[in-house]
Amino acid sequence: MIAIVLTVVIIWVSLKLLNAYTRHGSYIIVPDFYGVVIADLEDFASDHDIKYIINDSLYDNAQPKGSVIKQDPLPGTKVKKNRKIYLTVVALNPEQVNMPNLIDLTMRQALSMLETYGLKAGSLTYVPDIAHNAVLRQKFKGADIKEGTLIEKGSSIDLVLGKGEDNESTKAPDLFGKKQNQVLSILQSASLNIGNEIFLDGNDTTVARVYKQRPEANTAIQYGGTVDVWYRSEKKYDFTNNKNNTDD
Fold first, then answer.
1. Could you tell me which residues come within 8 angstroms of residue 121 by beta carbon, excluding any fewer than 6 positions away?
2. What's the gap between Cα 105 and its chain centre?
3. Alpha carbons 197 and 183: distance in angstroms, whole number
């Protein structure tokens, strides 16, 4: 009987000690770190009786620098006090890439190369040269940029290309109904630049589509020329049935 009583007491004491050690039943709810900037993290974590570790950073120019964009565990999760929360923040400095060599590539090859490196094509300028539509110079902010130069990812690179011997022209593509994020790509593929952009129904680019363009589709235009576009909201204009009704 004594042995049984001692066993029960030992088990009971052990369970109590184990519960105290593991804080059994003592939970907190993980707060929402999203959007909190690095400078405020210490106070924010302390107020919620929780610890954090920044284990990764990503560059995102759409989010405030140094702000939290990902956390593990997720907000609302039950954890024990002083549990560490792993955070991913927006990098303070933008990601950089090495400038590729575009010289002597065709315009299409150059556009593809820029996309591969996370860069964009800026303005296209055509000059007299026998090398038709070949890249003669690559420029950044008005100055030539050499291969291997570190440059911020997402930057625009201006291209100087050859006109060819016959001073050839191209045709303006049909942009009717296209969204803004499609227009520049289509024009560059046709060796043209975007001109003025006019929004007739507000600046909401998610619903804006090309209502009119000048020069009109299939009009002959010199390489490197510009095309002006007018946008209307797809919520206010019937693009399916009114393609030819684009009068002011």
1. 110, 111, 114, 156, 157, 158, 159, 188
2. 26
3. 10
Gap between the Cα atoms of 219 and 215, Å rounded: 6
75: preceding bond cis by omega (within 30 degrees): no
The model's pLDDT over 60-102, given as tens digits with 9 standing for 90+, comes to 777 888 899 999 989 988 887 777 899 999 988 888 899 999 9
158 φ, ψ (degrees, to nearest 5): -80, 140
- Give the pairing type, strands 51-58 and 84-90: parallel
The domain tally of the chain equals 3
| Closest by CA position to 170, among listed 192, 195, 194 | 192
7/131 Cα distance (integer angstroms): 94
- How far is Cα 186 from Cα 123, in angstroms, rounded to an integer? 13
- Of 71, 92, 113, the residue that ends a domain is 92
Flag whether 233 is in a domain: yes
Residues ≥6 apart with Cβ < 8 Å to 197: 180, 228, 229, 231
Can you name the residues that pair with 127 across neighbouring β-strands? Answer: 162
**Is residue 41 in some structural domain?**
yes
Domain range for 128 is 94-167
120 shares a domain with 162: yes
* Angstrom distance (rounded) from CA 167 to CA 126: 10
**Torsion sign across C-alpha atoms 137, 141, 142, 143:** negative
* pTM of the shown model: 0.64
Chain segment 208-241, per-residue pLDDT in tens: 999 999 999 999 999 999 999 999 999 999 998 8
